[in-house]
Amino acid sequence: MAIGKFFSKPDPSLQDRTPPGQHLSKGFPVLTYGETPEVTADAWQLKVWGLAKEVSFTFSDLMAMPQHDFTKDFHCVTHWSKLDVQWRGVRVMDFMKQVDLNPTATYLMQHAYGGYTTNLTLEDFLKEDNFFAHTLFGEPLSADHGGPVRLVIPHLYAWKSTKWIHGLEFLDREELGFWESNGYHRRGEPWAQERYSDSNR
């Protein structure tokens, strides 16, 4: 990590917003495993299945839901954070008003275009601060940053905020997603430095 040119140590006044081991990014780095999917807003769909009534939402459906602006800090497991990221989108709690969820659901698997997956507990998913984002700093969300739509889970490391979100599979048990199956922590809470699986124990 090139401290100085691209990253800086947090000022003491920002330490209460910067988790341990993190440096502040001067830009907004793009980290992607594999190729970047190219999905237009017209073609985008978000599918719901598993322990919920199966349904699909289009980009127009999402835009018809209540829209909100969000300013949130963003923490990457690779030791950088970006503060005050400005998004626009739909609260998870508003979206879930359109979903008929089975009461036995306790987990979900996020599915992305391109095959990426990551898991969440239902409790972590159904937090007031979580949202589906389609706009970043006043511009349509680019493909590099997960557009046309990504999920944003601000209280967990960024790999839990799935780019190119395509599906929500609700489950009654924990299943591990891509990075969790390859050594990352099951939950990924930044303030506890839950980066890798050895901190599960």
From TrEMBL:
What broad taxonomic lineage does this protein's source fall under?
Bacteria, Bacillati, Cyanobacteriota, Cyanophyceae, Desertifilales
In its UniProt entry, what is this protein called?
Sulfite oxidase-like oxidoreductase
Q: Which organism is it from?
A: Roseofilum reptotaenium AO1-A
Instruction: Give residue ranges for domain Oxidoreductase molybdopterin-binding.
Output: 34-179
Signal sequence region: none
Q: Which PANTHER family match?
A: OXIDOREDUCTASE MOLYBDOPTERIN-BINDING DOMAIN-CONTAINING PROTEIN, PROTEIN-METHIONINE-SULFOXIDE REDUCTASE
Q: Where is this region: Disordered?
A: 1-23
